[in-house]
Specification:
Layout: E1 2-6, H1 11-22, E2 26-31, E3 44-48, H2 54-61, E4 66-69, H3 81-97, E5 101-105, H4 118-128, H5 130-144, E6 149-153, E7 157-159, E8 168-170, E9 181-183, H6 184-193, E10 206-208
Helix pairs in contact: 1-6, 2-3, 3-5
Length: 209
Amino acid sequence: MNVLIFGASGATGNELVKQALAQGHTVTAFVRNPAKLQVQHDHIKLVQGNVTDYASVERAITGQEAVLCALGASTPLKRDAALIEGVRNIIQAMEKKNVHRFIYLSFLGVREGRKGLGFFVNFIVVPLLHNVVADHESKEAVVKKSRLNWTIVRPPRLTNGRKTGVYRSGEDIKPQSLILTISRADLADFMLEQLIDKTCYGKAPRVMY
């Protein structure tokens, strides 16, 4: 499958690229700084650009079969309007180019996603990351208004642990510990599964240990 990954040079993006290539996909990696992408492979194409530039986004999306978005804020200390604009550009270009499958990486702390997750998430994590939460809520709203076959993935705190393939997912799964985590490797595994699994079309699953 021809897969485009936005935010490919980030920690989660790198994991998505590596695993997508290992699964036999042809990957286009959209990055601001190619030097940060730590992957070399015959079936990868690097596109340097900024998601706020609609023309470069549309060019990258042309000919793709699915798009994964793992864009991350440069700092949690303030809101990042550029990322919201970037998601709008991605969706507009996908609709124009008839690329329908969109997998967006959000965060468990969004208002809709944190229900039933207890004191630590609601009163410790969310206040600390309120700017990140607000940006994800804005981007989720844009995604949900689109005509795409979207899935919004909501993980908790990410770690650099190994890929285990053993984790839980679903819109209503409950926490089994106070500190909720998942490794970036297992998160990438789940996101890539969504390329061929239609179960989560139009849904926003949690994914955690």
